[in-house]
Amino acid sequence: MQQLRDVLDRPIVLVGLMGAGKSTVGRRLARRLGLPFVDSDAEIEEAAGASAADVFELFGEADFRDGERRLVARLVEGDVRVIATGGGAFVDPRTRQLLNERAITVWLDAPIAVLAERTGRRDTRPLLRSGDRAAILTRLADERRSFYAEAQIHVRTCGSAHADVVEQIVAALQDRLNR
To answer: What biological-process GO terms show up in the record (predicted)?
Structure first.
């Protein structure tokens, strides 16, 4: 793993719908690679002194995304690390362009049933609070799929164990960096 870490010259950024495993897989990937891990939602919460959900509801999605974009821009400028983004971060065209220029972007793509089950464990997702969880996730997947498809690496998780997803990402990174 030392060899892979030595050739990484930019952060690895995980994108995808809420519940795809970006935070959990990101922590494990960072540990596997010996890199620091940062969760952009946790950074937003620390900066705002409130939960990301509260910031989203208080200021609205447009202001939330603008603040998220500025935060993500700061995160990719730092050390090489693994960064988990919020589910909507990659939808913003400026954020998507910035990440694809200055990071290795990885789309974690999980089936709707897996996303619905995982997001049902906690009520911290403002976009899922009003309606059928699976229907909302299906709509968001349809709306966002073309944006996520612009990520440099696509990993279909199919509800796989997080350790297996980490290994898929490591293999994809090795393929990409050995071209």
So the answer is: amino acid biosynthetic process; aromatic amino acid family biosynthetic process; chorismate biosynthetic process
160 a known binding residue? no
Is 125 annotated to bind a ligand? Reply is: yes
| Residue found under tokens 């090489």 | 80
Please tell me whether 65 is known to bind a ligand.
yes
Domain assignment present for 108: yes
Q: Determine the length of the chain.
A: 179
Q: Tell me how far apart the alpha carbons of residues 168 and 151 are, in angstroms, rounded to a whole number.
A: 15
- The 10s digit of each residue's pLDDT in 141-174 is 999 999 999 999 999 988 788 999 999 999 999 9
Number of domains in the chain: 1
d(CA 124, CA 115): 14
User: Does 139 show up as a binding residue in the annotation?
Assistant: no
Q: d(Cα 65, Cα 21) in Å, to the nearest integer?
A: 20
Read off the pLDDT of each residue in 93-120 and give the average, rounded to a whole number: 93
Residue numbers of the domain that contains 67:
1-171
| 133 assigned ligand-binding residue | no
CATH of the domain at 46: 3.40.50.300
Question: Taking 70 as the threshold, does the pLDDT of residue 53 lie above it?
Answer: yes
pTM above 0.70, yes or no: yes
